[in-house]
User: Fold these one by one.
Assistant:
Number 1:
Amino acid sequence: MRPIARISAPFPDKFGVPRQSGLAPSLTGRIVFLPAFRAPEALRGIEEYSHLWLLWRFSLPEREGWSPTVRPPRLGGNERVGVFATRSPNRPNPIGLSCVRLLAVDREAPDGPALIVSGADLTDGTEIFDIKPYLPYTDSHPEASGGFAERERGRVLAVRIPEEIRRRLPEEICRALEEVLAQDPRPAYHDDPGRVYGFPFAGYEIRFRVQGDEVLVLSAERTGEEG
Amino acid sequence: MRPIARISAPFPDKFGVPRQSGLAPSLTGRIVFLPAFRAPEALRGIEEYSHLWLLWRFSLPEREGWSPTVRPPRLGGNERVGVFATRSPNRPNPIGLSCVRLLAVDREAPDGPALIVSGADLTDGTEIFDIKPYLPYTDSHPEASGGFAERERGRVLAVRIPEEIRRRLPEEICRALEEVLAQDPRPAYHDDPGRVYGFPFAGYEIRFRVQGDEVLVLSAERTGEEG
């Protein structure tokens, strides 16, 4: 097993990354192949697919070795569930599975060919082991029953970005930020209305506060490096 | 990366294995964990899910190292497509991805706990790296466009199993065999009406012939070992 590519994504750290792929559909990422796998012909025909699977490596900070049971954030962080009944990183092998939309193939870039994708729940620099086409006839099961993850997914927050902040953010970053914050990126069951959270996102340091079901963005300042 | 489990399935060899998971829904398999991972609590809550993902190892006979382009059987074996636009085993890392139905958890077996699943496209003994719940809100995309694999999938054969053969096969094996043969297990673009094919399946040696769009089963003899 060796990485074949890395993703460039707006999240330098884990904070803010959606809990699953597709929850923040405006988030875009760029998948760049490692030199040994930069073969334009390996992507021939991939544009026929609207969605791709990414198999990727859980990085160390989010992983503490494997544990037979884990406490999913969606269950409040108290209830223990078997690790194979979750998508937790604390599984025997450090492989994540995410479905992304394929927006474009960039064949002209000097580090190309690259894949432009949206909806990824990966931090910047995550190593990718495999990219497979999404085949709806074998992969799509809308009737599947989804356990606790399904029951808890409906909850989203309202997001308020004041006009003076909104004006300074590129439109696509603003849209992605709204989706990210709507998912409530706070650690499980934090509910402290006074608390100010901060995280780096797409080259900005975002500060926000949550009151009830509303997120208020307090500031968005450019950081030195582009996310 | 180390295997956590193995599947017991009706196919000792690759011949007959459906091209993707779910195409032969009556095929059942039993997933047995390796001793280091036999932790009943690791499966706590898994029954809430109707479907599971299996991440598994492509075995050597079906894999010839990685190749930037491959010739998918569904395109007749002549046209070359980028490997990342296919689910071919000839990719950089030997990981397959399959969605199966979870039928039951067997917690009482001496080698248990085991998972009884259906629809797997794995040969007997395949090593499994990971088992994840299928989450429809993030994994199901019925609107995804499916490329050539989607266009070619509709074709199935009619299957005729003569009454005297049918009478000697257990009903569930007969049903699974019909589904397997309907998928046309012949190598890509074989079309030789005289030719008799044989393959081992669930402890039987199956012989069949194809004429036009019909498969005729010629015999099903018990072999020494159970599949």
Number 2:
Amino acid sequence: MKILLVYAQPESKSLTHHLAREAEIYLQKQGHTIIHSDLYSMEWKAVMDETDYMDRQFHERLSFIQESSHAYSTNTQTADVEREQKKLKEADALILIFPLWWYGMPAIMKGWIDRVWAYGLAYGYKNAGNSYRYGDGAFLGKRALLAVNIGGPESEYSPRGINGNLEDLMFPITHGTLFYTGMEVLPTFAIYNSVGIDKPDLEIATSRWQLRLENLFKEQPILFRKQNGGDYPDRHVLSDDILLGKSGLSVHIKG
Amino acid sequence: MKILLVYAQPESKSLTHHLAREAEIYLQKQGHTIIHSDLYSMEWKAVMDETDYMDRQFHERLSFIQESSHAYSTNTQTADVEREQKKLKEADALILIFPLWWYGMPAIMKGWIDRVWAYGLAYGYKNAGNSYRYGDGAFLGKRALLAVNIGGPESEYSPRGINGNLEDLMFPITHGTLFYTGMEVLPTFAIYNSVGIDKPDLEIATSRWQLRLENLFKEQPILFRKQNGGDYPDRHVLSDDILLGKSGLSVHIKG
């Protein structure tokens, strides 16, 4: 299988790079092929703007949806975006590795999503509006996994921890960005207390990471409800037959 | 009062710029002073990296926490970051205006947070670790408001809508980024169906926006629980006395 590793940390001695290197070694040992997107080394352009469209369709007013659609369908995207999309299309799994900054991805990785997740591909698939998304789409059949390094302790990210439950904080990425495109998303891998982690704890974390990598294609994904599976019969709102009276992000997960 | 408007859209004809202009006109009429951070016009550097630290404390390995702390405390931050922090310190309210991209901020705005929210100021306040946060901190007494333009319909962001409830999706920003620093955060202002919005709908949205601006300093903020208010007595986990057995992001809001 082919696995695309995307990571966002400039320091090669960081835990993020450690996880990327371990993933490469460990997955290659299992016979897989690794593709890299080391965003800082690539000097990835984070900001989506008008220079992303080499053949503007409309000059009067910049609409990202229109220009992204036009650029994608006419092969006039910039070379850097095309290259990343090609890697994604080839990959059987995508692993995003990053330090948690303000409860989300570093800007450089958010900008990788903003620019690579084009209209006609990641959204507006088949130019059919929102017909194919959340469990269906261009990336159906691929797996996705977040690996996150977190300075704080696990208790603060537990179901009643002050920061919010980690999986709820990641929902805009796991559900709204990855599952959106059809990918199966695995539970988030996290290393807590990551700042100045000592050798014994690093070894434990590395073993946990290897186990997750070993099961990359076997593990049960998060059971997000599919848009077109019958759970959202009207205006994409959860059916009254399911968890009536309940709300919160977890209603979108089965079981 | 002084109000800092931070917005992230390159197109001056966009709804984002419309909201920024309306805010300026309307708030000035009420006697307030407006400070702007038009991130695209400013060509804001989105990516936090080693060039942000003009006088590195440690050269062996880049630690953002250490270097941010050192740069903030020794006044060796870059001029662009210092300028934004000065604006923030002067402001009585912060309004972030942006189009919703992949259920979050555009990368350029995430990068504004990543770089401006320095150690010693937005986190690690008074160099006291995590002592002052979530309802306390350097920005105590300031108000904050998100104004978000959303392509999709409101139903999809309702409490049981497929995308997730809007306020839950914004939690990493409202709670984890703004309330974290001590700010009082108002409920998110959203314009749905924003793509190609017609004139009558734009007028309705503009009136709604003016009403929110009028009440900027009067409106009830989201009642996030304070870290040091007694609700998190042990390891920053919500007390068993509160909503026992419940979880999800909403447990961190009173009432």
